[in-house]
Amino acid sequence: MPTIAYQLYCSRNFPPIDDTLAMLSQAGYKAVEGYGGLYGDLDALKAGLDRNGLSMPSGHFGLDMVEGDPARTLEVARTLGVQKVFIPWMAPDLRGTDLDSWRSIAQRLASALAPIRDEGFAVGWHNHDWDFADLGGTTPMDLIVESGLDLELDLGWVTRAGLDPVETLRRFSGRVRAVHVKDIAPQGENAEEDGWADVGHGTQTWPAIKAELDAQGIDHFVIEHDNPSDHARFARRSLEAVQAW
């Protein structure tokens, strides 16, 4: 059975987290994906997950934590049951500007995640659109994969980068450990939600994407919307769409 999770970052504007976990459980979710802002009180978060019958098979961890405090990263992952650790972001001033600087950054990411991988966790990078920049025949994403890291491929940001999700999945075949299932609103719509849409209610070609996911054996789907105006509506409608696959 596939894992269908909800990225808790979607609900950052709808506190408290306990209410969000209850809402997700009632909507039918069995799994979530964590992010750095939730990792303060681990015992309370773990209790909330358990109380609502939710697991957390993957989590987003900032480079500052992974690189600066790998012991804390491991503590968080073990306490919450995280099996896949993904770095999701790099501030603009830390990003590369050319091939050589991005090659150094890719190695930095790989080195930061090495102690986590050595403890038996899957590790990788979660993309946006800027990491597909053309560096003269290659991209930061290519360099990150060449450094030995796997990917959590955000299909929404792939499309925002002007790329085809199916072709991009094939480009990184064998290296994708999970995907962010994210939809794009038709042009000019959902401006108040930054142009994103509930999964299955936008322009992504889900039948073709799902066929490629199946062909590669990718079965870890993380539902996400960067700025839903109603997170309960988004959670419910998106889960219904993915379950219909």
TrEMBL record:
Domain of life of the source: Bacteria
GO molecular function: isomerase activity
Domain Xylose isomerase-like TIM barrel residue range list: 23-239
Assigned keywords, A-Z: Isomerase
Pfam families: AP_endonuc_2
PANTHER family: HYDROXYPYRUVATE ISOMERASE, INOSOSE DEHYDRATASE
Protein name per Swiss-Prot or TrEMBL: Sugar phosphate isomerase/epimerase
Species: Rubellimicrobium rubrum
